[in-house]
Design brief:
Blueprint lengths: L1 E7 L2 H12 L4 E10 L3 E10 L4 H7 L3 H47 L4 H14 L7 H13 L13 E5 L6 H14 L5 E5 L7 H12 L2 E2 L11 E5 L8 H13 L3 E7 L4 H14 L4 E5 L8 H10 L3 E5 L8 E2 L3 H9 L4 H4 L1
Parallel strand pairs: 4-7, 4-8, 5-6, 5-7, 8-9, 9-10
Antiparallel strand pairs: 1-3, 2-3, 10-11
Helix pairs in contact: 3-4, 5-11, 6-7, 9-10
Length: 350
């Protein structure tokens, strides 16, 4: 390839010189205006010839001044090409960063998190991200920090505690109570008794009695009877706010004198439904903590954030399968964040 510059009084005259010396195959690289004391203002055209003949090479390279001009032009073109390449790379990286953030936004939206939470989280992510953009590990860590603010690392019970379980129909109150009983008996080595306030649901008493029989526990009746040598777990019926039954249940809840009142929420509930329910239930029941159930049934865990932000309560325990004898555990913010983001837990892969 030969690159050479031609100067003349006008663009047409300079282009004519290009055609005369380099022929019709010449490619114009750039056109600039130059000025010197001898020739005054001129137009300079830099052109190249990709496959010159021997005769063309000899003629075009015979002038050392022109060769120097060609070398300078080559360097300038190379620098310009490098700048264009760098700009293209930066644009590509920015597009990729935006694409990654949009994927995170979509995942958070699919997890049923509110628009307000998503906007705030993505703003924080953008501010704290490195120049290369956020990676999944950083996103999971930041989301985990948010969740850690509304999750308790542990809650211990002692003999004499009275623990009440309230919540909407189908949330898994009775199952959560049974799992808690199994945990306290087998892990904490505490004596436990079961009771129920539910005189509405058909078979409610029999269900709690079955749990007691399975775990070899005693039933306590009436529920407000003081039992100082054990932890008393009390099931409550589902609540319908705004009618006479809610007021009657409130009286029973007060009479049961609980030390802890767990508001049990199913992860299968939509965030909007959780907000409506929790806004009424947290105040009416004097709830102290949250239990979130059925976490193995869905990855849309936005209800956890909805419940905690609406009630100002923390999540003390979580459960998976709705069956009666499963595990109840303390929440793991990092693992929950990974589930929301669709990241597999390395502990599960091992």
């Amino acid at each position: 390839m030969i690159i050479k510059s031609f100067a003349a009084a006008s663009s047409a005259a300079a282009l004519k010189l290009v055609r005369e010396e380099m022929g019709g195959d010449a490619i114009v690289l750039k056109t600039t205006r130059v000025s010197d004391r001898i020739n005054g203002n001129q137009v300079e055209i830099t052109a190249c010839l990709e496959k010159p003949s021997v005769d063309q090479s000899s003629r075009l390279l015979s002038d050392p001044v022109d060769s120097n001009k060609a070398a300078v032009a080559t360097a300038e073109v190379a620098e310009e090409a490098a700048n264009i390449g760098a700009e293209a790379t930066n644009r590509t990286e920015k597009i990729n960063e935006i694409h990654e953030i949009e994927k995170i936004r979509t995942r958070l939206f699919q997890a049923d998190l509110s628009s307000e939470f998503i906007s705030g989280f993505l703003y924080e992510l953008a501010v704290n991200s490195p120049e290369t953009g956020p990676n999944l590990e950083q996103v999971q860590s930041m989301l985990s920090s948010r969740l850690a603010e509304v999750m308790l690392p542990g809650l211990n019970f002692v003999a004499g505690d009275r623990v009440l379980f309230v919540g909407p129909a189908g949330s898994g109150k009775s199952s959560a109570m049974a799992k808690m009983a199994a945990h306290l008996v087998t892990r904490s080595r505490l004596k436990v008794r079961l009771s129920t306030l539910d005189d509405v649901k058909v078979g409610a008493l029999e269900e709690i009695q079955n749990y007691a029989d399975f775990l070899d526990l005693e039933m306590t009746d009436p529920v407000y009877q003081s039992v100082d040598d054990c932890v008393t777990l009390i099931d409550a019926p589902s609540q319908n706010f705004g009618d006479a039954s809610a007021e009657a249940l409130q009286g029973k809840i007060i009479a049961s004198k609980p030390n802890y009142c767990f508001l049990v929420i199913s992860a299968l509930m939509r965030s909007s439904d959780i907000i409506r329910y929790v806004a009424q239930a947290a105040e009416l029941n004097s709830a102290t903590h949250l239990i979130v159930t059925m976490l193995d049934q869905t990855d849309a865990l936005g209800g956890i954030v909805a419940a905690t932000s609406t009630s100002d309560l923390q999540v003390a325990f979580i459960t998976d399968a709705p069956g009666g004898m499963g595990m109840i555990t303390t929440p793991d913010p990092y693992r929950t964040a990974g589930k929301i983001l669709g990241i597999k837990d390395s502990r599960e892969q091992a």
